[in-house]
Amino acid sequence: MGLRLGKPRLVAQTEDVIGEIPVWNGAAGTLSWIDILKPAFHVLETTSGDIRTAVPPEKLGSYGVTSSGALIVGGRGGIALWEPWTGRFERLSSPEADRPDNILNDGRVGPDGRFVIASMDKRLAGPNGRMWQVSEGETTLVQDGDIFLPNAICWSPDGTTLYFGDSHTNLIHAYDYDLATGAITNRRLFADTSALPGDCDGASVDAEGYLWNARFAGGCLIRFAPDGSVDEIVSVPVDKPTHVTFGGPDLTTLYVTTARFRTDPADLARQPMAGGVIAIDGDVPGLAEPLYGVAAG
Questions:
Q1: Would you say the pTM of this structure is higher than 0.85?
Q2: Is there a catalytic annotation at residue 201?
Q3: Domains and CATH numbers, the chain
Q4: Which candidate in 112, 201, 206, 239 is catalytic?
Q5: Is 208 annotated as belonging to a binding site?
Q6: Cα separation of 84 and 87, whole Å?
Q7: 144 labelled as ligand-binding?
Q8: DSSP state letter for 18
Q9: DSSP letter assigned to residue 166
Q10: H or E element at residue 96
Q11: pLDDT tens-digit profile of 39-50?
Q12: Which of 7, 90, 113, 207 is deepest in the core (most CB within 10 A)?
């Protein structure tokens, strides 16, 4: 029996250039996300529909949430702790300082509480990006190179598999992930998505171990089975979905961030949800989003 999914609905229209990194806060009943180009950090109160927005001190590629409510962010200047509502900003490291053409892009907090983030050459001049891991304020290199445009960082339900996608090559790889040390080993191909609609963008894994991938310029989400095969293709009413996560009281609502980036006015007129956040109610729950510095379980 296939998935049961409701009709996509718009829950926030913030006219983001490139909305990214939706994070559900179950305790507060809020959804947060960023616009990586304005830049902006948004928080949606899902019961009232109210939206709060803060402007970060630099463009952000990604972020995670700490137990105090502060954010660990990967921005143009490096890794930092930022409190959006007070403005407090503490630089922790600048891991790409030796590669001035590199910027930090996709990142996520893992089930062990570590923040994993990858960089890219902003000119896409080559596979010059690297993967880093932040734990207790220390930034450690875990993959040196072979990254064009990093996306789709997420973990299997048991936390022992790390998924990592590249939007330039349209390949999603899997690694063995050591929850005790954060080490990654045994890189292998999970899915070659080059023949599928759009490009590989943000991803999340559901409680059944299936990976949901937003397809930028493909107008859909693709659900991959644990063996890497395509299970479902779910159309969305925008050309450029950027990321997907699970939220709601029982984690069965798909929240999809979207982009208006390089979309002409005629195309925007036919997709009024572009630049906003879309919700799709489903029947398969996702996984709770971990907090930085706090191991799950």
A1: yes
A2: yes
A3: 9-281 (2.120.10.30)
A4: 201
A5: no
A6: 5
A7: no
A8: B
A9: E
A10: none
A11: 999 999 999 999
A12: 113
